[in-house]
């Protein structure tokens, strides 16, 4: 390091203005002391800062009682290269300083997990992630060849945890790709973005693979694009932004997403005739910031999610108190080695509390079936009206439900459940992935914003037969599914009605839109009933 003239006060030291405050302060001390071993000095400086004794450290350094005349061990150089000092991520300290939050002052606080988040946010890898594989194409010709292959690929079977799953990537026999991703990915854009990496080593190839291997759906507009981590939305914004705009009705790259989880804002649900409603359900997803999302996370990272979240789920009391059930065969959850019994698992599925093995080509192409069933499971409370899925399509899927039409009660429970899980996640040094622009950040762009789907199972046997039924509902902001999902028939006259929007409107707004729409559709059903009775 170059030698400097004597420094007597901080005003003599010139530090670039663009540096965060914490790095400006550190830089000044490095210049002032001019330590022979800068890495050793950095270790002492940031360790003392995190322990709340920085003034004592600087006083010792000034008196000469601290010896920096040693060669740092190889492990310390490795820590420094990875952006870590004494087990605490420098980037995390910087992030807290920017938010004017205090540095960690409790020396007993577990900061190992915080280190993972900030290192992932800041470090820039030189190669793509290999667990799982993240490089598939490399050239535009290879992209086009893969698209052609999956347009004509014959059905096949894979085995997931002893279950044979039949897959067909183009069962509707569409002639060309029609998903949102394929509408916006050009040769020029692919070549521009293909070499980019996020700090977790996520590639463009990884994000587009699900859309390359799944051409589209005739009934709904599929996205064809997933995020391997939170950073994917920024690193590959030139593709994600137009896809998000198409999927979310023109939502722009500078738009800001509102959030409102206050149940008091929910309209009086008695405007809905409950005689026509079978059940009510609200679900959303949450991602843990700093850990790759399900398409990209490895076994260890998936287990970390389960470990952090179950600390919340297993300590609920009151109406949220319940139990966590790891999937049968999972060895990741110490209190239940081997997971639940196959009989318990089947019962939960029959009761619609548990997801299936991945049987969708979208999930398989996204590599979300890896290591199944390890570190997957579900929690439900004793009353069986709230559920949390762990490590399915998203890190968390949070669900509140009950029979009948009291959507306000369902939303209140949902809001409490989200808040209680977040409280523990934050206490463990993590946070939910959220931004002012995208709201809650999830794997699929279709679920950005609120990620919220408020739905009711409604009996509409007459209205459901009208050809204009779906268009009528669409104008009210309502999405219609058959009682057994998107592709199910409508012979039963029972429909799953939900809000169609996710992004750009708050949770309360979306629930109120659903309430208004369902009430109007039921009123229309009554008119048809009366007309039929009069004839």
Q: What is the spatial order of strands in the main beta sheet?
A: 6-7-8-9-5-12-14-13
Report the oligomer. Answer: single chain
Q: By helix and strand content, what is the structural category? A: alpha+beta
What amount of the residues lies in strands?
A: 5-15%
Morphology call: globular
| Uncertain spans | 1-15, 68-121
How many whole angstroms does the radius of gyration measure?
A: 27 Å
Mean pLDDT: 85
Specify the biggest β-sheet. Answer: 8 strands, antiparallel
Short description:
With 535 residues, this protein is an alpha+beta fold.
Q: In words, what does this structure look like?
A:
The protein is α+β, with helices and mostly antiparallel strands and 535 residues long. Among the domains are: 10-122, no CATH class; 140-247, Transferase Creatine Kinase, Chain A, domain 1. The protein has 18 helices and 14 strands. An eight-stranded antiparallel beta sheet has the order 6-7-8-9-5-12-14-13. Strands 1-2 form a two-stranded antiparallel ribbon. The chain is globular. 41% of the residues are buried.
């Amino acid at each position: 390091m170059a030698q400097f003239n004597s420094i007597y006060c901080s005003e003599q030291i010139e530090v670039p203005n663009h540096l965060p405050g914490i790095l400006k302060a550190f830089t000044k001390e490095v210049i002032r002391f001019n330590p022979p071993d800068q890495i050793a000095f950095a270790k002492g400086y940031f360790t003392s800062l995190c322990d709340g004794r920085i003034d004592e450290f600087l006083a010792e350094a000034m008196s000469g009682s601290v010896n920096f005349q040693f060669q740092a061990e190889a492990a310390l150089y490795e820590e420094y290269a990875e952006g870590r000092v004494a087990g605490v991520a420098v980037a995390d300290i910087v992030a807290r300083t920017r938010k004017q939050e205090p540095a960690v002052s409790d020396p007993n606080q577990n900061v190992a997990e915080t280190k993972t988040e900030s290192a992932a946010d800041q470090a820039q890898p030189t190669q793509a992630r290999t667990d799982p594989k993240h490089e598939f194409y490399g050239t535009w010709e290879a992209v086009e060849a893969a698209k052609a292959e999956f347009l004509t690929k014959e059905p096949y079977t894979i085995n997931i945890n002893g279950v044979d799953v039949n897959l067909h990537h183009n069962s509707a026999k569409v002639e060309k790709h029609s998903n949102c991703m394929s509408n916006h990915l050009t040769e020029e854009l692919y070549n521009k973005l293909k070499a980019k990496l996020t700090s977790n080593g996520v590639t463009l190839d990884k994000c587009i693979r699900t859309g390359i291997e799944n051409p589209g759906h005739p009934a709904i507009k599929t996205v064809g694009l997933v995020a391997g981590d939170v950073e994917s939305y920024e690193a590959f914004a030139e593709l994600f932004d137009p896809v998000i705009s198409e999927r979310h009705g023109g939502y722009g790259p500078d738009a800001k997403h509102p959030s409102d989880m206050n149940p008091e804002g929910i309209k009086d649900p008695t405007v809905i005739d409950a005689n026509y409603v079978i059940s009510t359900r609200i679900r959303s997803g949450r991602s843990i910031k700093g850990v790759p999302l399900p398409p990209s996370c490895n076994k260890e990272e998936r287990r970390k999610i389960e470990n952090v979240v179950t600390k919340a789920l297993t300590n609920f009391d009151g109406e949220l108190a319940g139990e966590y059930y790891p999937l049968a065969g999972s060895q990741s959850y110490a209190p239940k080695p081997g997971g639940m019994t196959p009989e318990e698992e089947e019962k939960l599925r029959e009761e619609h509390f548990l997801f299936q093995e991945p049987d969708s080509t979208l999930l398989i192409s996204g590599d979300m079936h890896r290591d199944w069933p390890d570190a997957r499971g579900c929690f439900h409370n004793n009353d069986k009206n709230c559920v949390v899925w762990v490590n399915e399509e998203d890190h968390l899927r949070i669900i509140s439900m009950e029979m009948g039409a009291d959507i306000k009660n369902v939303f209140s429970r949902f809001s409490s459940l989200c808040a209680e899980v977040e409280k523990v996640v934050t206490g463990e040094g993590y946070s939910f992935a959220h931004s002012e622009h995208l709201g809650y950040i999830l794997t699929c762009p279709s679920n950005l914003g609120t990620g919220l789907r408020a739905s009711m199972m409604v009996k509409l046997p007459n209205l459901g037969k009208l050809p204009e039924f779906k268009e009528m509902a669409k104008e009210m902001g309502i999405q219609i599914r058959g009682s057994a999902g998107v592709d199910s028939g409508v012979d039963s006259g029972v429909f799953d009605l939900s809000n169609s929007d996710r992004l750009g409107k708050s949770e309360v707004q979306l629930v109120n839109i659903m309430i208004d729409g369902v009430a109007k559709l039921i009123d229309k059903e009554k008119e048809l009933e009366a007309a039929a009775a009069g004839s």
